[in-house]
From TrEMBL:
Protein name per Swiss-Prot or TrEMBL: Cytochrome
Protein's organism: Paraburkholderia acidicola
Family that this chain belongs to: Belongs to the cytochrome P450 family.
Keyword entries, A-Z: Heme, Iron, Metal-binding, Monooxygenase, Oxidoreductase
Protein's UniProt keywords contain Translocase: no
Length: 407
């Protein structure tokens, strides 16, 4: 197997038959110089408990791009972000970020999510084509992050475009030289923008997340300016496309399972469990990466130190050894009462998981409540992004016959 198998039109359209065929060859598949893991038990152990697996980002860059790749600004910046770190650097930075996030009240995050959803729903019009991706799912998370950081909403589109370009660097397949150049340019734009924001917050601090990060002092530990810039960019990247694509994927899954959609309409108290099930069924996050920090094994199969391990969450979430009827959406599935593996686990548990769930619950709940006659009109002709790490559609067309119900 090679990377080309993860980059075909059939794979982008529906990777799950490929995962099932792949699993017949075993739960650990070599893709030189890496190992792809597809089994739920194996991935759960690595994600939740195995301290011998961690992050070695620049080594992974060297493997894919050679020595010259390590000097690229995009990869240097990514290596300084929380997602790519191991302890003790990870421990220090996560503690500071958690202090900053914990300072944001839960009710405030919920209110920001709801107001953002309602503003976008209010703008939808009856009896005209609607693209739920460009008019709702994509702008909602970026608007929420802008509000949390007190960034003007009319900058959201510009920031979203640069963040999307930057986020290409998270892909499992190597980028072309042109793609690296575009990602570097996007990073430069974002660094310049947030450097100016930080200067403004130093002069005029507020209650926003960036002001909070500037004020954090944990027994003498503080953020450097670059740490704030790089991790604010990371928060935008991690909280933007993952959530927006998951809103789209969840709507597609529910409308393709009308019995489950009607059950959710009748029993809105199932919303959180339904979202967990949608993330299991068709997660926007398909692959995450770890590196063996020392010689280890997974269920008896040796993994030498330095091996880059790709955890196929898409395959894991359809593992028939873990889930009955894995290819069917069942919102009352017992396993979906628990958070899915897409939020990772252990020391790398997603820092923004609570905000992501607020956003997903608010987005889906608001659509179901305020757009009762919503119809998706391109379910049979969806165009999926040409990406193997992040899964989502380019557009999700819909119509409504009446204006949205009152908030």
């Amino acid at each position: 197997m090679n990377y080309a198998d993860l980059a075909s039109p059939d794979f982008y359209r529906d990777p799950y038959p490929f995962y099932h065929r792949l699993r017949k060859a075993g739960n650990l598949i070599p893709i030189a110089p890496r190992t792809l893991i597809t089994g739920h038990a194996e991935v759960a152990r690595i994600v939740l408990a195995d301290r011998k697996m961690g992050k070695s980002y620049l080594e992974a860059v060297r493997t894919r791009y050679g020595e010259a790749g390590i000097s690229q600004p995009i990869f240097q910046a990514l290596s300084k972000m929380l997602l790519m770190m191991n302890p003790p650097a990870h421990t220090r930075l996560r503690a500071l970020l958690m202090k900053a996030f914990n300072a944001r009240q839960v009710d405030l995050l919920r209110d920001i999510s709801q107001s953002s959803a309602d503003e976008l729903i209010n703008a939808l019009q009856a009896n005209r084509p609607i693209d739920l991706m460009s008019e709702f799912a994509l702008p909602m998370p970026i608007r929420i992050i802008c509000k949390i950081m007190d960034v003007p909403l009319d900058h959201a589109s510009m920031l979203g475009a640069d963040v999307s370009q930057f986020a290409q660097a998270f892909e499992a397949a190597p980028l072309s030289p042109d793609q690296i150049a575009a990602a570097n340019a996007a990073l430069e734009n974002l660094e310049r923008y947030f450097k100016d924001v930080i200067a403004t917050r130093r002069a005029h601090p507020g209650t926003d997340l960036i002001s909070t990060m500037l004020s954090i002092n944990d027994n003498g530990e503080t953020f450097s300016e670059n740490e704030i810039i790089w991790n604010v960019i990371f928060i935008f990247a991690a909280g933007h496309e993952t959530t927006s694509n998951m809103i789209g994927n969840a709507l597609i899954a529910l409308y393709r399972h009308p019995d489950q959609l009607e059950k959710l309409r009748a029993r809105p108290e199932l919303l959180t469990q339904a979202i967990n099930e949608c993330m299991r069924y068709d997660s926007s996050v398909q692959i995450v990466q770890r590196v063996a920090l020392e010689d280890t094994d997974v269920h008896g199969i040796a993994i030498p130190k330095g091996t880059i391990v790709l955890l196929s969450l898409g395959a894991t979430n359809r593992d028939p050894m873990q889930f009955d009827q894995p290819d069917t959406l069942l919102i009352e599935r017992p396993e979906s009462a628990n958070p899915p593996l897409v939020f990772s686990g252990g020391i790398h548990y997603c820092l923004g998981a609570r905000l992501a769930m607020f956003e997903l619950e608010t987005a889906l709940g608001t659509i179901l409540r305020r757009l009762p006659d919503l119809r998706l009109t391109n379910l049979d002709s969806l165009q999926w992004h040409q990406r193997n790490t992040l899964r989502g559609v380019t557009s999700l067309l819909a119509r409504i016959d009446q204006h949205p119900l009152a908030a």
